[in-house]
Amino acid sequence: MTTTEGREILVGIDPGRNWYPSLAQAADEAGRRGLGLRIVVAVPSRQEAPQTDGAPGGTVSRQVEGKTGPESAHSARDDAHAPGQPPYLVVGIDGSESSKAALAFALEEADVRGARLRALSVRQPPAVVTQGEEAALQEQRRMLFETTADWSQKYPEVVLTHELPVGQPVEELAKASEEALALVVGRRATGAHADMRLGSVADGLLHRAHCPVIIVPQGEPAGR
After folding, report:
1. 128-176, pLDDT tens digit by residue?
2. Contact predicate 182/209, CB 8 Å
3. 219 in the Ramachandran plot: left (φ > 0), alpha (ψ -120 to 50) or beta?
4. What predicted TM-score, i.e. pTM, was given to this entire model?
């Protein structure tokens, strides 16, 4: 893969926390995609630490830029999945435009990493079972298959599976992420301040998922 000029991976580092997993993930991503890697280090303000090299009050960001090499980057998450099991990603699908954007990103990511992709459409159990329940289940199954149908030709090497678990979306997606390389979900744009709101499912997964969570804004194009 050749380097894409003008594009880069940006990772924020807090020296006071466990920053290595974030840096390793970013380096891995940059190496696989042939992109530059920019590291932004947050330096505590004077109120938080006595010495900040003469920096004024407030948090200071220092940037260190460079390119990553594939050899050093690829080993970052090679053992993230269970031993003996093919690596996979998980993507949540609900038929919305934001989940379609998440699917596009997840397929590209799976293709880059040589991983499988599990497409989940979580069906919440109805409060009251009615005669139309089977028809609703078939409609959701149809939506899931139609949403993914047009992607097989673009990513023929990606093994894509379809799953319709019953339960709460956050709980079921978090459960599926236990040995995944990453969990990809969409984020709806709902107004002028949409960038400040993640949504209940995305926000819940940030706290519950067992792997890195990738949140794709509505309408975000695939990277390639």
Report:
1. 767 777 888 899 999 999 999 988 789 999 999 999 999 999 999 999 9
2. no
3. left
4. 0.69
